[in-house]
Amino acid sequence: MGVPRAPVEPPTPEQAAFLERAMTEYGKATYNFALRLTGNEADARDLCQEAFIRVYRAWRSFAPGTSFLSWIYRIVTNLHRDELRRRKGRYQEEIPEDNAPQEFGGARPLAVTPIDDYVDRQLGEPLSKALALLSPEQRQVLILADIEEYSYQEIAEIMGCSIGTVRSRLHRARALLRRLVERAQQQQR
Amino acid sequence: MMINDHLSTDLLVDYLHGELAPEDDALAHAHLASCAACRREYDLEVSLSETLRAAARAEEREMPSMISALIWERVRGARPGPLARVAALLRPMVAVPVVAALLLGGWFASPYSHPGTRPTVDAMYYLETHAAQSGSPLSLQPGPPALETSMIDGSTSPLIAEHVESSHVTDALDAAF
What is the chain B residue with the closest CA to A150? Predict the structure, then answer.
């Protein structure tokens, strides 16, 4: 993935203990979250590694009593977004934002492969593959809302956006997924 | 929102995620109990969420051990930066002995630590001795200074020696002309 490597200082004993515990307790969740966001193991490994290095460097800024998972998901989300920006050109930017009508055809360009192309190529693939069709932000919000089951408020904090943005991204992502599933079912008949 | 209005998909999604205001939530709940069309739509949304969760569970895996190994490799192989090295010097375990050593070194290097060898000049003694040697009572009359020697090693002061030497030159020039 090529996530830029942050410089690291040698650990204090407390810092090393913090990192050890963070990886033991949240390594699996973080890795799976990264895997769903990126859709491939190599990128997920890079993302996960860099996220824990960030945790290690900023360990003093973690407020006890708050959710560690939310914190590291936020780190992963930000790293992923930054990486996608660096890869500008390979990805288009996100679908135009809030309050736009939920239309997936017509003049407004999609940030993703057109549905028909996708259905032709991906028919029969697991539903999780459909996540790859969504814009990165839609994929993040869908994972956080429906798989991780965070509230809109928590998602807004993790993603650093408004609740309204979370709501509109989620509505659009789900509508797109439903269309994909319906198309796939029609093709199978 | 009215109880008889059909529920939009967006509203059903918010209802499913428990994100409606209490009044709207109650109205949606009542409407779903009586409207088969909206109930069908809602069930589709529920099944989409369940399918996503099931797919995520099925694909869930452990974090590869190589990730933590690489992280530890980076962390343990890290070398301190310049700031960290300066900060390490300032740690009490290092700073206290260093400061103590500097203070002691400064003390022993200063003349106050050797009272016996301290170069002191008793001005009155010096003047009285000078007067006794020259055979004249103590006076402050101007005149060329006598060739003085250091009280410590008996050597001639360079400044005085220079003065004497320049007097000899002046005398020689006077004799020539």
Answer: B17
